[in-house]
Each structure stands twice: as structure tokens, then as C-alpha cells.
Design a protein that fits this description.
- A 7-stranded parallel beta sheet has the order 3-2-1-4-5-6-7, with helices on both faces.
- Helix 2 links the parallel strand 2 and strand 3.
- By secondary structure, it is an alpha/beta fold.
- It contains 8 helices and 7 strands.
- The structure holds NADP nicotinamide-adenine-dinucleotide phosphate.
- NADP nicotinamide-adenine-dinucleotide phosphate binds next to helix 1.
- NADP nicotinamide-adenine-dinucleotide phosphate (NAP) binds next to helix 1.
Length: 246
């Protein structure tokens, strides 16, 4: 079966590592999304360097209803919708609850959870017709532990887990799997806000004593996309150096 792989937020960090690892593993066409020209250039450079077929596309998860436009453009160019969907793009707007603005709540729910719903709904239609598909949603350890300052983010990421489990039940009979990866602390720009002191105190909480690498998350995604995981659905793969053992 022809494979079309869509990785959202593929310009840097975890998404870029996912895209690169899947290029090495899957024979198919690859689309990675970014919100800026710089991000598009970085994805196109990766595709060129690895000799992969595909392209970068502009997509902003904060723009409501933008999923339709993205998938329509993919269908127009490649004649099919993605049958491997990695909902990786995500944002944080951290703030203690009493200081949190409604916009910080809305944006985080929109970019992490609602955009995942829209993209998944559109891509799922053709996966159901083809009776095959892989969906991996990037959640977070914060979804299962909570995190002060992240009521919005933790709620969105927990929503992704419940969404994935429910959908997994709906589509399992059609050979479509829906799973989450829950990273702990991974060394990307998303953690740039942590001071050195805070980083050190976090290392002390992690049995492995370090942050994870983007490749270590990408390997979990690669597994959930591969045939090796054909019987795994509605699961969360926790990749956190032992920070939380579930
Ligand atoms: P990152 O380094 O901040 O990269 C975020 C990616 O998402 C970029 O490709 C970015 O594209 C894209 N993005 C940002 N805002 C977007 C928007 N409004 N619409 C569409 N795409 C947008 O983040 P990361 O650390 O790689 O995180 C990737 C995923 O893992 C996220 O869902 C995050 O919540 C989750 N996660 C990360 C950690 C961690 O410790 N890093 C832990 C748990 C979960 P541009 O380059 O165009 O901005």
C-alpha cells in the first residue's frame, strides 16, 4: 500500500526527529508542516538531504478550520490523504491558573487538542475506506501527572489521550491504530524557558538523571507506525527516563 506520511510541527525539535526517522523506515511520500518560511526551509533541507519524496507545507494549528485546507492541498498534489498521521505540533502558554488569560487557555486547547481532532477526522475518512492507517498523537507526561502552571497544557494533552483511546475503539476493526507518545523532559526549544537551576533540580527527579533526546521520542513513534506494533492501539508509550512509572 502506498504510504503518505504527515508530521505536524516538523521544522524542529521532536517533529524534525520524527520526520527524519520515518524517512529512514517507511517507503512513502512525506509532508511536514511549519508555521514560517524558516521552518519550511528546514523541512525541505531535510527532505533534500535524505533524498525523500515530499515537501514542507505551511500550517498553523491556531487557525481554526485550517486542517481542511492542509489535507485538500496534500490530496491535490499527491492524489491521496495521509494514511500515517503524526499529530506532533504543540504549544505551551504556561501560567498559574489565577493569572491565566482566556486566550492562553483557548490557544493551548486549540493548537494541541482541537487541531488534532480536525486533522484526525479528515484523515480518518480515507483510512477507513482503505482499511488501514496509523495515528500517533504527541501527548505529555504532564497529562498524567499534572504540572503547576500548565492547567491548560495538561488538560489538552490529557484530552489527546482520551480522544485517542475513544477513537481507537471506533476504528480498530479497520486495522487503524491510534496511540499516544507521552514524552517526559526532552531537550528541545520548548524547555528553553527553564533556568539552569531548575534544569538541575529536574535532573534529580529523573532516575536516568538527564533529559531525553528527540531521537528517543522519534524511535517510539517509529515503533507505533511499524508493523511490529500492529496489535497495539489505544495505548500511551511513556518515554521519560523513569520520571513517572505507569
Ligand atoms: P518545539 O521545539 O517547540 O517545536 C514545536 C513544533 O511545533 C515546531 O515544529 C513548530 O513549528 C510547531 N508549532 C508551533 N506552534 C505551532 C502552531 N501554532 N501551528 C502549527 N505548528 C506549530 O516543541 P517540541 O519540544 O519538539 O515538542 C513537540 C511536541 O512534543 C509538542 O506537542 C509538545 O507539547 C510535546 N512534548 C514536548 C516535550 C518536551 O520536553 N520538549 C515534553 C512533552 C511533550 P515552527 O518551527 O513553524 O514554529
Amino acid at each position: 500500500m502506498e504510504k503518505l506520511i504527515l508530521v505536524t510541527g516538523a521544522s524542529r525539535g521532536i517533529g524534525s526527529a520524527i520526520l527524519e526517522n520515518l524517512i529512514g523506515q517507511v517507503d512513502g511520500t512525506f509532508v511536514g508542516t511549519a508555521t514560517s518560511q524558516k521552518g519550511l526551509d528546514s523541512i525541505n533541507d531535510l527532505l533534500k538531504r535524505t533524498g525523500a519524496t515530499g515537501q514542507a507545507m505551511l500550517w498553523n494549528a491556531l487557525e481554526k478550520d485550517s486542517a481542511d485546507g492542509l489535507v485538500s492541498e496534500i490530496k491535490r498534489q499527491y492524489g491521496m490523504a495521509p494514511n500515517i498521521l503524526i499529530n506532533n505540533a504543540g504549544i505551551t502558554r504556561d501560567q498559574l491558573l489565577l493569572r491565566m488569560k482566556s486566550a492562553d487557555w483557548d490557544d493551548v486547547i486549540q493548537a494541541n487538542l482541537t487541531a488534532c481532532f480536525h486533522l484526525t477526522q479528515i484523515c480518518c475518512k480515507s483510512m477507513l475506506r482503505a482499511r488501514w492507517g496509523r495515528i500517533v498523537n504527541m501527548s505529555s507526561v504532564a497529562a498524567v501527572t499534572g504540572n503547576p502552571g500548565q492547567t491548560n497544557y495538561a488538560a489538552a494533552k490529557a484530552g489527546m489521550i482520551a480522544f485517542s483511546k475513544s477513537l481507537a475503539m471506533e476504528v480498530a476493526s479497520r486495522h487503524i491504530t491510534v496511540n499516544c507518545v507521552c514524552p517526559g523532559f526532552i531537550d528541545t526549544e520548548m524547555l528553553d524557558g527553564l533556568t539552569d537551576d531548575r534544569k538541575k533540580s529536574v535532573y534529580d527527579l529523573i532516575p536516568m538523571g538527564r533529559f531525553g533526546t528527540t531521537d528517543e521520542i522519534a524511535h517510539a513513534v517509529s515503533f507505533l507506525v511499524s508493523d511490529l506494533s500492529a496489535y497495539i492501539t489505544g495505548s500511551c508509550l511513556h518515554v521519560n527516563g523513569g520520571l513517572v512509572m505507569l
